[in-house]
Write a structure and sequence with these properties.
Blueprint lengths: L10 E7 L4 H12 L23 E7 L6 H16 L3 E5 L18 E7 L5 H11 L4 E4 L5 E2 L3 H11 L5 E10 L15 H6 L9 E6 L5 H7 L12 E3 H7 L9 H13 L4 E12 L7 H25 L9 H8 L7 H21 L6 H19 L7 H9 L4 H15 L1
Parallel strand pairs: 1-2, 1-5, 2-4, 3-4, 7-10
Antiparallel strand pairs: 5-9, 6-10, 7-8, 7-9
Helix pairs in contact: 1-2, 6-12, 8-9, 9-10, 9-11, 10-11, 11-12, 12-13
Length: 424
């Protein structure tokens, strides 16, 4: 049976797989398969008709040059879990070496289908574009092969998307964690679905070190604004509408910030009310012990700066405004004030910030709420202060902040005294 005539699932979950490792990848797919089931309160996952809003479900795995058998581990764990849950599972592997191993279950009677494809080009952007084409549902959930979906993540997102058709993307808050050994005095937390892993013989350490919780912005207008300076939505936590994302597409020339670039282009096309975050923990995001090389880190910063600069240029173009201070160097300073090396660089970034503030508000004046406008103004105040603090009383940015925040005189005096003390 081909994807064209197969029954349409209620949800597709897209997971590119490079290298898990295998135990982490098994935990990831089990956390997805467990989403339609809950042992505590089934009313939380069933609709008013007593049916599941998540079944039938399609899981799309895209082999992005996987070399550590993570995909095999995922399929093996999925088959064992399907037996325990008593659900029908179909596995269809389109990779040439594996097609003979496909299960023969009809998709018309299948609760969960796992479709496996080989990416046509290396890189996560290519894997996501190709995998998106294979998703048979209009609603697509994203996951990484080493992360863990928290209970109720998908059911909350799919109900939000059904109730709010104007939104194209919805993310969640995340917990960042590491599985390295920790001292007894450090905080430990039981990861979701560890008991399921143990029942299936999958090694999933229960003790982890929580690095931090990312509480992302839920006001869509303010989210659109903040995205100009940093990525304020966690890629593996999102659910989005296939048609919208496929029309825009991931830029396969981008190696590290394909998601950030995509969100900025989506906001430019669909304006500022197309994305939001739900205020609950949806994903446990794994941080690995290895650090990025200097060249990888530099490339990521450069790609992010370029995406931000292009987004600002589109705003100025849409409002027919001009800004001769819109340069990649000034955007880089604005996104990271610590890169400034002179008062002149700080001032140029501050002038650019006020210009983009006026253009953004003008462009979205009909859709921004009073709360979102207030949040934007406060955010600009804070960003200008962060710039001005580098050269207090030596730059125009300091005067701009004093003009914008006349009621913060005590803070002004404190900063001036601190600045003079540093100069002594």
């Amino acid at each position: 049976m081909t994807a064209d005539n197969a029954s349409v699932p209620k949800l597709s979950v897209l997971i590119p797989v490079h290298n898990g490792p295998p135990n982490a990848a098994s935990h990831a797919i089990m956390s997805i398969m467990m989403q339609p089931f809950d042992e505590v309160d089934k009313s939380l996952i069933l609709n008013s008709d007593g049916e599941s809003d998540l079944l039938p479900m399609q899981i799309v795995l895209v082999d992005d040059s996987c070399t550590d058998s993570s995909i095999d581990a995922m399929v093996g764990s999925a088959m064992k879990l399907a037996d325990i849950l008593k659900v029908t599972l179909s596995v269809r592997d389109s990779r040439p070496k594996y097609q003979a191993m496909n299960s023969s279950t009809s998709l018309d009677n299948t609760d969960i289908t796992i479709d496996i494809f080989a990416a046509t080009r290396s890189g996560v952007a290519s894997a996501l574009n190709y995998g998106l084409k294979q998703c048979r549902s209009e609603l697509v959930g994203r996951m990484d092969a080493d992360d863990i979906a928290a209970p109720y993540r998908l059911i909350n997102q799919i109900r939000f998307m059904h109730a709010n058709p104007s939104f194209d993307v919805v993310g969640t808050s995340t917990n960042r964690f590491a599985m390295q050994k920790v001292r007894l005095s450090e905080f430990k937390s039981l990861l979701p679905y560890c008991n399921t892993c143990h029942a299936l013989g999958v090694s999933a350490a229960e003790e982890c070190r929580v690095i931090g919780t990312s509480l992302f912005i839920s006001d869509p207008g303010f989210l659109a604004w903040s995205m100009l300076f940093s990525c304020s939505i966690q890629h593996p936590s999102v659910m989005y509408r296939k048609r919208v994302i496929q029309n825009i597409g991931y830029d396969e020339n981008i190696k590290s910030c394909e998601d950030y670039d995509l969100w900025l282009r989506l906001i430019s096309q669909n304006k500022c009310k197309s994305m939001t975050n739900l205020a609950f923990l949806g994903v446990w995001h794994r941080k690995h012990g290895g650090s990025k090389s200097s060249s990888e880190s530099t490339n990521q910063k450069e790609e992010a700066d370029s995406a931000s600069c292009q987004a600002m240029a589109r705003i100025f173009e849409d409002t027919r405004a001009s800004c001769n201070r819109l340069t990649l160097d000034n955007v880089s300073t604005l996104r990271n004030p610590s890169r400034a090396r002179s008062p002149e660089e700080v001032d140029a970034a501050a002038f650019l910030l006020e210009s983009i503030e006026h253009a953004f508000i003008k462009l979205h004046s009909k859709s921004l709420t009073s709360q979102e406008l207030s949040l934007i103004h406060l955010d600009v105040d804070g960003r200008i202060l962060e710039l001005a603090e580098r050269y207090v009383n030596q730059c125009v940015a300091w005067k701009i902040w004093c003009r914008r925040c006349p009621d913060r005189r005590i803070e002004m005096l404190s900063l001036l005294c601190h600045s003079e003390h540093k100069g002594d």
